[in-house]
Amino acid sequence: MEPVSFQEYIRSLDPATLPRILRICSGVYFQGSVYEISGNECCLSTGDLLKVMAVALEKVICEDTETGQTTELPPTFKGEQGCPVPVRTPWAPSSRGRPLQPRGLSLIVPQGGKQRGLTLHQAVGRWDGQPRPMLCPTIGPCALLLHPVYQVHATMHLRRDMVKIPSTLEVDVEDVTEEAQHVQFARPLLLSEVLRMEEALPTKAEILEGPAGPAIFENAWVPQLQRGQWLQLHGRSHAWRVLASAPSSGRHFLLSSTYQGRFRRRPRQFTGVQELAAGLRPKQQLRVVVTQDCEGRGDDVPPLGVGDRLEVRELRGNGPGTWLLCHRHGEDEEEEGEELLLPLDLGGGFVEEACDSKKYRLAELLEQQPLPCEVRVVAPDPELERDALGALPALRLEARRDQPFLVGSFCEEPEEGFEIPPRWLDFSILLSEEPVHPRDPCTRCSRVEELTEAFYYQLLPQLPGGLAPPPPRPPKPAQAGTGHGGRRPSSPRPPVPGPSMTNPRLAPPLPPLPALPRPSTPSHRGPPRSAGEAPGASRALAPPSALSSLPGMESDSPEHDYEPVDGNVKKTIRKMQAIFPF
């Protein structure tokens, strides 16, 4: 077949002969041209093959043979077209005038004394490749040329979805259906689609596009999921997972139910009575020890002291008047305890009184202890070369996840397997048709997967109750004589008058005076202490000649015998005289 335009080929195509295989011949530039097809960019290069699966009428463009005006009719147009009419004058299209709009139903055009009309689909179906004038009184009295536009549904090699191409695409094609019968149009799949194709497993697959977005695991095999890498997909994994966090280091993990390490329960810690109430479990006793003193509230709420042993029993009341019933044990076995009703907004610190020294496997632990709970790994997994959980002082098991995983391995290392979560780590692959010998690879490396911090916080909203924040604590009741939050109201303190209030220009600060040596003979004492001087205050001594130069310091008393003053004191006195030039 000689190459023809794509529009001409589709117009003359008989739908009964579908599917047809076409080859792109021309109409593309720079070895390829990108067209916007169904919202996706599709590159059609010379030599590409299209497999046309279906053709649907999209619209019909009607052109007036006299004025050249055009109007678009939808496939649901209800008017009827007349049969072909002869045109005596050559038709010359014109661009004058405005497009005409359809105006509803119309009778059939009389011909030979009989009324006979065609629907829009019938009129287009009678078109044999060359447009012929038709009459439609619903649109106007003039003859019309019908130009149908089709939507072509086709498949292409290595495209996941069927493309929808308009028949007006300006490319040349040729029909190669006969010689291309053996061509297989490979359709890529997402890894998540393979989860629903268990009958196709095991199989080999080539990665067409690696995972997009930020990484989710901190391991060695995820970075190898690149384009061109070959995988061997073995089947679905039947293990479930547990999300865990290490409070001391901020690391997060995903534990497989196949993990062989042993755990030991750690006592739970509670901050406040509200957390105590949240820690109650049906048919399980909760005994705690007070680790932080808590003040009471009058006669209704007695104080709690460090070391008090409480047995948490049940909640009483509803709404803001909810109380937690506890039993406080005596200091010894002979002393009887007392019943306490604690308000939920009461603070304090508590630690669970647990004496469980048993070592649990992961599945056994979840049967005995509801999540979340705190544990410690006392025996690492012996089959792991390096168990990251063994060195952690504490581990918080947060929630169980029944996420589907696929068991896979790289074709160059089929014995070393790993487990992929396709809903979290999805990418495009192409399945191979060559036979695969089934084998069970070792997936030890996936028993403990460390999560990236960003992915961990993406998982939190998906956990049960993850979107709901913890309920706020009720407000503390205000005590007598106190304001909001328990603080006593204080009146504003008046400003203290000082030099800054009378004179904005302050004198420079005085240098500190060193202490003078005490007199060697106690026979001569200094002047008597003034009334305002504190007892025991030491007085610095200086020669009268130095002090007499200051106003108000002239000496009327006879000369006293003072010890000589060293040079440092003299320098200090000279500095004072320079600062205060009286």
From TrEMBL:
User: PANTHER family per the record?
Assistant: CABIT DOMAIN-CONTAINING PROTEIN (PTHR15215), PROTEIN THEMIS2 (PTHR15215:SF2)
What is an example of a Pfam family matching this protein?
CABIT
Please note every region of biased composition (Low complexity): 534-552
Q: Which GO terms describe its biological process?
A: T cell receptor signaling pathway
Q: Which family does it belong to?
A: Belongs to the themis family.
This chain belongs to the protein called THMS2 protein
Q: Which InterPro entries does the entry mention?
A: CABIT_dom, THEMIS
Q: Which GO terms describe its cellular component?
A: cytoplasm; nucleus
Region (Disordered) residue spans: 462-569
Sequence ranges of Pro residues compositional bias = 467-477, 506-520
Domain CABIT: residue ranges: 18-79, 201-408
